[in-house]
Amino acid sequence: MTVDTRAQPAIAELSVHETMLHEVEMHSSVPDSGPRADAIVIDQDVPFGIGELFFSRTDTRGVIQAFNPVFLRVAGYSAAQLTHAPHKVIRHPDMPKGVFWLMWDGLKRGHSVGAYVKNRAKDGRFYWVFAVVSPVAGGYLSVRLKPTSPLFATVREVYARALERERLERLTPEQSAQSIEAEIVAAGFANYGAFQIDALRSEHGARETQKHAVCADNLLASGHLLDVKRQIDTELRSLCLNLKEAELITTNMKIQACKLRSDSGPINEIAKNYELMMREIRSHPRVVYTLREDRGTWEVNDEARSVFLIVVADLMAEMFEFFSVEDTGCARDGETSEVAVIAELRDRYRREADRATQESYRAVRQLAADAEMIRRMVTGLAMVRVVLRVEAGILRERLAGLQSILGQLDRFHDQVGEALERIQDAVTVLLRDRGFVA
User: Fold this and answer.
1) Which pLDDT band, with edges at 50, 70 and 90, does 230 fall under?
2) CA distances from 169 to 164, 172, 176 (A)
3) Which of 185, 210, 235 is the last residue of a domain?
4) Among 38, 246, 254, 432, which residue carries the largest CB count within 10 Å?
5) Which among 71-80, 209-218, 287-296, 322-331 has the top mean pLDDT?
6) Quick check: helix, strand or coil at residue 58?
7) Is 3 part of any domain?
8) Run of H or E including 18
């Protein structure tokens, strides 16, 4: 599942080639001919408040159409200088091109994209933001907040290494993006899509805490669902890996049967039955999905998607409150006002968040059903274990190796049984707490 914002057809039809041209235009290393052509780099940040949000809207080429006073003040430009200027006017040379490649890759697929970005003010100083960019009719809308969570420090280290690789290894933006995502996956995230959701959730939570704001009930519920579902997924993956490793038990049975020669028939049959039943379990869609490694960059589950959408809707609501009081955007007569654009995004995100949340609970109920089916199949395996134990008793003096296999089977079934019980308990409690019946 991806963070799909139902982009307008004009945006969704952007070709890969056009998108990459935009990336080169907006973030190339060629000096700008615009207002910050002579800007120097100063290792000093521009201060701004935790409660402040940056806003800007561009056309499909990245040319600025609208903004808010926070953007003007921190970037250090006048309204006349920013209006119709390329957004790359604030690009900082410390930013890896791979990050922009990831952003454009997500946008051209119709997703909203979140990323940490280091920008350069007109006077050469810098400021960091966490940006959420969304496709809208005729271009893109970006809302940016001040990053303060513990994850921010880690990301700065990842960016520094990525920038160094780009310089020393002459990586293309796409190669750099792959390298950045590899570091993110190594840190425990499924992909960049999952990382950006956690990052936005962390930064929004840190911001709300510092503002002494109360977390919204729907975000608390979705966040709790996401956390519990991840615990369940961890248990399920461990269980599935145990199922995969159990192939060795079947192989050992066959080896022991070979040692019996003429009396190998019963053990061979037991091994075959066990192998067939294990194959049926391993081919179960839930097991296959859990063990799948080829998750795309933007594939995320509904429970994660709902958290992302709720947070962005909250940010859009905050921007709406500002623009509804004083619409300081640059829309000309006859053009869509910023209030209308932001309101449409806010409402769309809320609708999508509600749908994603409902899909999340349906998915959890399906997970409960799948876990019960796997439990029944494992119970069938236990019957084969009983038959093997009887046969091992008959052959005890002739083939002591079967006792070792029985020990492996006992441990395997204990581990799988305990994991399934923990999964069922977690699912039952989660659905009961939220008013659903498991």
Assistant:
1) confident
2) 8, 9, 10
3) 210
4) 246
5) 71-80
6) strand
7) no
8) helix 16-27
Q: Which of 195, 210, 225 is the last residue of a domain?
A: 210
pLDDT of residue 401: 63
Which of the given ranges, 75-79, 248-252, 261-265, has the highest pLDDT on average? 75-79
Q: Which amino acid is at 344?
A: E
| Pair 317, 343: CB distance under 8 Å | no
- Using a 10 angstrom Cβ sphere, with 0-12 exposed, 13-18 middle and 19 or more buried, the burial of residue 15 is exposed
User: pTM of the prediction?
Assistant: 0.80
Q: Is the pLDDT of residue 172 over 90?
A: yes
Q: Is the separation of the CB atoms in 392 and 402 below 8 Å? A: yes
| Mean pLDDT for the chain overall | 81
Structure-token pair, residue 339: 């209030």
Residue 313 and residue 424 in contact, taking contact as beta carbons nearer than 8 Å: no
- Shared-domain flag, residues 267 and 357: yes
How many whole angstroms from its chain centre is CA 16? 22
Q: What pLDDT sits at residue 15?
A: 35
User: 7-12 long-range CB contacts below 8 Å, 24 or more apart?
Assistant: 7/110, 7/135, 7/136, 8/135, 8/136, 8/137, 8/138, 10/60, 10/137, 10/138, 11/60, 11/107, 11/110, 11/135, 11/136, 11/137, 11/139, 12/110, 12/135
Q: What pLDDT does 198 receive?
A: 95
Mean pLDDT of 174-179: 96
Per the domain annotation, does 340 fall within a domain?
Answer: yes
Q: Is residue 1 part of a domain?
A: no
Distance CA 34, CA 199 (A): 32
Domain with 191, as residue range(s), is 9-210
Q: Are residues 67 and 101 in the same domain?
A: yes
Is 425 found in the same domain as 326? Answer: yes
Q: What is the DSSP string of 105-174?
A: HHHHTTB-EEEEEEEE-TTS-EEEEEEEEEEETTEEEEEEE---SHHHHHHHHHHHHHHHHHHHH---HH
Closest residue by Cα to residue 270 from 287, 256, 284? 256
How far is C-alpha 265 from the geometric centre of its chain's CA atoms? 51
Same-domain pairing of 164 and 267: no
DSSP 406-418: HHHHHHHHHHHHH
Q: Are residues 247 and 194 in the same domain?
A: no
Residue 11: closest CA among 125, 112, 85, 89: 112
Helix 97-108 × helix 150-169 angle, to 10°: 110
